[in-house]
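Molecular record:
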Amino acid sequence: MFMGHYGAAFAAKAIWPETPLPALMLSTQIMDIAFCAFVGTKIEKIEITTEANPTVPIKSHFIPYSHGFEAAIVLSGLSALLAASVYGDISAGALWVIALVCMSHWFIDAIVHTGDLPIGFNRYKVGFGLWNNRPAAIGLEMVVIAGGVILLAASGAITPWKVWVIGALMFALQVYTFNAKPPDTIARLVTSMMAVFLLMIGIGVWMDAP
């Protein structure tokens, strides 16, 4: 799951409009931002291989600090604390929404990951493995993106044309991701991922502006 996580952020904005969209764009992907940091510094271990599954060319060997269940809880709290420090007048409800959106990342990943999500401080690993079924995995990703876009556009919380434009960009980026040649190094993988994350946070700022 990649751009689909932003579908969750859009849905949350539609349901709780007062929540700052940039904070949601960060919280929904803060686990993958941590993943980039830990993999880039070789604290966590992955392998780029097309043999991992037919959907995502990544095999995760050791990712408890970014994608462990306990790590997800910690990062959810961190997301809320960061939002509270940036938006001094933010409501408790909005902070809970930000934390829950972050936590949703782990549960969505549990559907698609192939038994590599740590739980119990890396004692066990879980994942229902939808990535092993490429058409189903692609379909789920697109449905989650579309659901978030439609909900947000209909809610009026964000100017609708902005939602449709960014929704189209999200679909295009996801289609490209599913069909692009895998990066030949881990450094290029994490660099490209971080570039997208920063772009989407900036887009959140733009979308939230009057």
